[in-house]
Write a structure and sequence with these properties.
By secondary structure, this protein is of the alpha+beta class. The chain has 14 helices and 44 strands. Strand 21 and strand 22 form a beta hairpin.
Length: 760
């Protein structure tokens, strides 16, 4: 037995790079504007060498300044409250600028601090809008769920009224078919906020009554209830691929003052996974006269835009597009659709991939006739930012215009008549953009995987109105972190370019030989590799493993989104290819050809969810390459997973479901495999791993398994344990040494931002 141990410093460094810690190592790397009104002004917070600071920005005046004197406010609040107050860590996270003063909540009270005298006084408490409330545009009311019905509360006096009374179990108002219930209950949240959209004038709400009554029921066993009692059964409505009955939603418009309901006069809409209101597939017209919504056929080959008259409930079809494969309003499942209704309902801006690339088209919204193609070329529109109807110009984000990386995004403009295309950001950086409700300008974060962000407010001509932040990454580099190497190689077909990043091990020595780890995420609905400096939801895990002494590679193979339609369609009916695992193998071999320090005799793989599926897929489909794997929460048998997943990307086709089953190829396993699953995973149910386990046992295969009894899909509250077990397994079987003796990771704080990012 090898008694050599990895130096504990490797685990300490790796822990610093985990998502919840890494954010503290990059100062000024992200700006989240908090708009103060319709005038385009905003505030944000930033961590500096002297602590967290509140910053106020007036783009029209070119002004960026501290929102207040932090030291004086801290002293004033301490004097008024009798509490200790640290100016570097003020006891509030949000402010409300108000007539020469600033208001905030601290120490269980509302405070108002004059910015002339710096005297803090208690202010009239506000009726707080909580996580479960959906507040009206004018801020005066909020709608919330009570039981299976909707209620409205005045934010001025706290009075409540009932909006609906006929909701019932499995036939409730404003609910989504899928909710991360176990995760929410962990933090004391009983459910998601209701799925509804307020009318622009704050008088009505759009919602739907969700019919789950005939949807299949599935079950989880809570083996360790919090009260210590006997195991309990958790029952879900959960449709499988091919099920006859799937969740349905009946749109209804409710007058908040009178409770009058205007139901949509049409058949209920299929809602396979999330509410179309939550995903922004349904929205109000600007004048409040109608609601527009998208519907997709169950085989995902047809997409339609409909108009729901807000006064009568009449529904008409504006336009429809069909195709031989997926017809979708974007390539990313969590992204808002790229559809806009213009000119008071006379025109529609429509996204289509009919010419092989994602582009915008203009339609007559009254007749459904095409008026012309707005954008064209061998590049893809990724997001509509703003439409200036007066000037007849659309501003948007496009990828494919930077030769070095087809995923980098540029801000562009084009006339609605198809003329005047122009790149507003004409550099080679990746641009992440936020647009205020006024649409007057955009907040632009420009970076690459190896270029830290530079954040500024820009006008629509590209001119910088005010600089906000330049990221300080000295804390990150102090850990030994180095930027990943961006690479381009050929896919397994020898023709198609695929792209990825390579993380060198800390303390890299080109004369040494290092084991290699592939870190996949194969989803057709999102990419694994980020084009920006922010590594995305999966990147920190890869960076941490590189700190342990591994070369780590991440690739977006054929079938993943963000490029042309043919590249994305490689996954249609072929989920079993796991986002191009053959392309991953091809990439590893090409990279190692001129990097002799990559040891392809010691290759491992790990991932979570779709990455857990891809891990087992890699080890069973390419056992000669992948020798060690850690698969977490993998959907190994898509025939018994969410209908929305398999039917959208692999069907409906029973043969395709069989091809994508890891259970069917379990007998090919040769390497060392650790399977990890949460016992209360209500997204990817643990039985999907158990089905694989049963087949592995039948094939007399050795493997290891860790079931975390109380864990849901993201292992929140248990990440420290699961992460250490993952590291220990990779260190033992690829580095060939023992982990540091007795090392334990600190428990991570609950990360609501991660939940939002993963669940859209």
């Amino acid at each position: 037995m090898n008694t050599e141990r990895l130096d504990v410093s490797a685990y300490r460094t790796a822990e610093k790079l985990l998502r919840h810690n890494r954010a503290q190592l990059v100062r000024g790397g992200r700006v989240k504007p908090q708009w103060t009104g319709d005038d385009g002004r905003f505030w944000y917070t930033v961590d500096t060498a002297t602590g967290r600071r509140f910053i106020f920005v007036d783009p029209a005046a070119g002004l960026r300044e501290p929102a207040f004197d932090h030291e004086r406010l801290a002293a004033a609040l301490a004097a008024a409250s009798g509490q200790d107050v640290d100016a570097a860590a003020l006891p509030f996270a949000a402010i409300e600028p108000s007539d020469g003063a600033v208001e905030f909540d601290a120490f269980d009270a509302r405070w108002r601090c004059s910015l002339d005298t710096y005297v803090c006084e208690k202010a009239e408490p506000r009726v707080a809008g909580g996580f479960l409330d959906v507040t009206s545009p004018d801020g005066k009311q909020a709608v919330f769920l009570r039981g299976h019905d909707l209620c409205v509360r005045s934010n001025e006096d706290g009075r409540e009224r009932v909006l609906t009374t006929d909701g019932e179990a499995d036939h409730a108002y404003g609910t989504s078919p899928f909710s991360p219930t176990v995760l929410l209950n962990k933090v004391g949240i009983p459910h998601l906020p209701p799925a509804l959209a307020w009318s622009p004038d704050s008088t009505r709400v759009l919602t739907h009554r969700t019919d789950m009554r005939e949807v299949r029921t599935t079950h989880l066993v809570e083996a360790m209830p919090g009260d210590g009692g006997a195991p309990r059964l958790l029952t879900q409505r959960y449709a499988f691929p091919g099920d006859e009955r799937l969740p349905l939603g009946s749109f209804v418009i409710l007058d908040v003052a009178t409770g009058e309901a205007v139901p949509a006069r049409t058949e209920p809409e299929p809602i396979p996974l999330m509410s179309p209101i939550t995903t922004k597939w349904a929205w109000w017209a600007e004048d409040g006269s109608a609601v527009y919504y998208l519907s997709q056929s169950r085989d995902v080959h047809t997409l339609s835009l409909h108009r729901l008259d807000a006064a009568t409930g009449e529904v008409s079809t504006v336009l429809t597009e069909s195709g031989e494969t997926r017809v979708e309003p974007n390539q990313l499942m969590a992204q808002a659709p790229m559809v806009r209704v213009l000119s008071g309902g006379d025109e529609a801006l429509w996204y289509s991939q009919r010419d092989g690339w994602g582009h915008l088209y203009l339609y007559d919204a009254r007749t459904g006739e095409a008026r012309g193609q707005v954008t064209s070329g061998q590049w893809a529109v990724q997001e509509i930012l703003h439409v200036d109807e007066e000037r007849r110009v659309v501003y948007f984000v496009a990828s494919g215009l930077v030769a070095a990386d087809p995923y980098r995004r540029s801000v562009c403009r084009a006339g609605l008549d198809g003329s005047g295309f122009e790149r507003i950001t004409d550099d080679d950086l990746d641009h992440v953009v936020v647009v205020p409700p006024s649409g007057r300008y955009f907040v632009d974060s420009a970076s690459t995987t190896d270029t830290p962000p530079s954040i500024a407010v820009r006008g629509w001509d590209g001119r910088v109105l005010v600089e906000l932040e330049r990221a300080d990454i000295s804390g990150l580099t102090a850990t030994g972190w180095t930027p990943p190497e961006h690479f381009r190689v050929k896919a397994a077909d020898g023709l198609t370019d695929v792209y990825g990043v390579l993380y060198r091990p800390h303390g890299f020595d080109p004369d040494k030989s290092y084991p290699v780890i592939d870190h996949p995420y194969p989803g057709p609905h999102m990419r694994r590799v980020s084009a920006s400096f922010d590594p995305g939801p999966f990147g920190p895990d890869a960076e941490a493993v590189a700190a342990l002494g591994f070369v780590v590679v991440a690739v977006d193979g054929r079938g993943t989104p963000g490029r042309d339609k043919a590249f994305h369609d490689a996954s249609f009916g072929h989920l079993g290819d796991a986002g191009g695992m053959a392309d991953h193998v091809a990439a590893l071999r090409q990279l190692a050809a001129d990097r002799p320090w990559m040891d392809l005799d010691r290759v491992g793989v790990f991932g979570i969810s779709g990455g857990g599926f891809a891990t087992v897929r890699a080890m069973c489909a390419f056992p000669e390459v992948y020798k060690v794997g850690v698969s977490e929460a993998g959907n190994h048998e898509n025939r018994n997973y969410l209908l929305a997943w398999a039917e959208s990307y692999d069907g409906p086709d029973d043969e395709a479901y069989a091809r994508s089953s890891n259970v069917e190829i379990a007998d090919r396993l040769e390497g060392k495999l650790l399977l990890v699953h949460g016992g209360m995973d209500d997204n990817v149910h643990p039985h999907l791993t158990m089905r694989l386990v049963d087949r592995l046992i039948s094939a007399d295969k050795d493997f290891e398994m860790l079931i975390v009894p109380g864990a849901e899909h993201l292992f929140l509250g248990y990440e420290h344990y699961v992460t250490r077990r993952r590291w220990d397994f990779l260190v033992r079987h690829l580095l060939g040494v023992e982990p540091p003796e007795g090392y334990r990771l600190a428990q991570a704080p609950f990360d609501l931002e991660l939940v939002a990012e993963v669940f859209g």
